[in-house]
Amino acid sequence: MTIGQPDLAEIHSLMGSRVETGQAVGIIAGVIDTQSRQVLASGKISLGGAQVPNGDTVYEVGSITKVFTSLLLAGMIENGEVKGDDPVANFLPAGVRVPSRNGRQITLLDLSMQVSGLPRLPDNLRPADMANPYVDYDAAKLYDFLSRHQLKRDPGERYEYSNLAVGLLGQALALKAGMRYEELLQRRIFEPLGMSSTTITLSDSLKARLAPGYSASLKPVKNWDFGVLAGCGAIRSTVNDMLKFLAANLEITDSPLRAAMQRMRTIKRATGMPDVEIAMGWHVYTKFDTEIWWHNGGTFGYRSFLGFNSGKKAGAVVLCNTFVDNDDIGRHILERRNAAAPSPK
User: Fold this and answer.
1) Which stretches in the chain have pLDDT values below 70?
2) Rounded CA gap, 100 and 149, in Å?
3) Helices H, strands E: what count in the chain?
4) Which of 74, 191, 278, 321 has the fewest CB atoms in 10 Å of its CB?
């Protein structure tokens, strides 16, 4: 074993300790390189249940959705349907005023790279049900916010993580394509990659495979529905499907999305966080002379990590149906010198 290769027995032990210490109900990880794909599981799908999670168990992946929304944009740029510097206002209904500042309009690429100047969340997100906070946020509310909002800095000036920005991007691309955001994902990404267990609206068969979500205190919580901001966090998926997605990004398998995936990695900007840059959709963590392209996700009952090390042609996905951070496990898989936090004793 070289210094960069993952020790799968160690990874499995790390996962198991988080279950044993009551931090998680269950955790599942997928590891891929040019030689193999492996799935590691610890814990159970539900408290009091006997079923162990597997590669086909369904989880909410939360903000990993942002990578897919940016991939839609990259594909539409490759196809000549849009340009990255097109103002997002061009794709919204007439009468919607998108804020601008000092003559600088918010572009599609600004939204993807989260430098739009828009805040993390709109000020009129006032959930009727705090346990499912996005479900009643619709297009009318989104357009009302945009029409009232005053930017505090110029678009393109500085990174600020924003569910609003990427949710708006997903809405704009769906309107441009003339179909619902979920349908756009299915046609442009999931079907070409054979990701048959990845979607937003779950069929009965997928519901039967859904791991129920739990809070950090192991209390059952509701699943989330995202309304008009689906592009920021609405996807549900499995480890096996995410391994297919990683294989395409690593070019271990060929796909019609290769050029779009490459485009996503052609531009990077500083985030103001140590060792972290932003690209189209992906964050880039650079340490030990190693670039890890990654995104994580979190809803009230789930946490997720997706990343790859292109230099080593290796990828990792970690899914958990408990609100507990597992990014360190994902980074450790991809570069062993990135330490994983020990579980409390």
Assistant:
1) 1-5, 343-345
2) 9
3) 11, 10
4) 191
Element (H, E) at 174: helix 163-177
The class level of CATH for 8-334 reads alpha beta
Measure the CA–CA gap between 86 and 287, rounded to whole angstroms.
34
Q: Identify the burial level of 129 via C-beta atoms within 10 angstroms of its C-beta, where 0-12 means exposed, 13-18 middle and 19 or more buried.
A: exposed
| In contact, 221 and 215? CB cutoff 8 Å | yes
Q: Residue 52 has which token pair?
A: 């162990």
pLDDT at residue 343, rounded to an integer: 60
The encoded tokens of residue 39 equal: 């799935």
Distance separating alpha carbons of residues 229 and 182, to the nearest angstrom: 11
- Longest Cα–Cα distance of the chain, Å, equals 61
Which DSSP string do the residues of 285-341 spell out, in sequence order? EEETTEEEEEEEEEETTEEEEEEEETTTTEEEEEEESBS---HHHHHHHH-TTSPPP
What's the residue count for the chain?
345
Tokens of 32: 């891929």
Q: What are the boundaries of each domain within the chain?
A: 8-334
Q: Strand locations in the chain, DSSP E?
A: 26-32, 37-43, 59-60, 236-237, 269-270, 276-278, 283-287, 290-299, 302-309, 314-320
Q: What is the pLDDT of residue 5?
A: 67
Residues facing 107 on adjacent strands: 87
CA dihedral 298, 304, 306, 307 (to 10 degrees): 90
- DSSP-assigned states of every residue in 97-138: ----BTTBPPBHHHHHTT-SS--SS-TT---SSTTSTTTT--
212, 322 in Cβ contact below 8 A?
Answer: no
- Residue in the block written with tokens 């989104």: 142
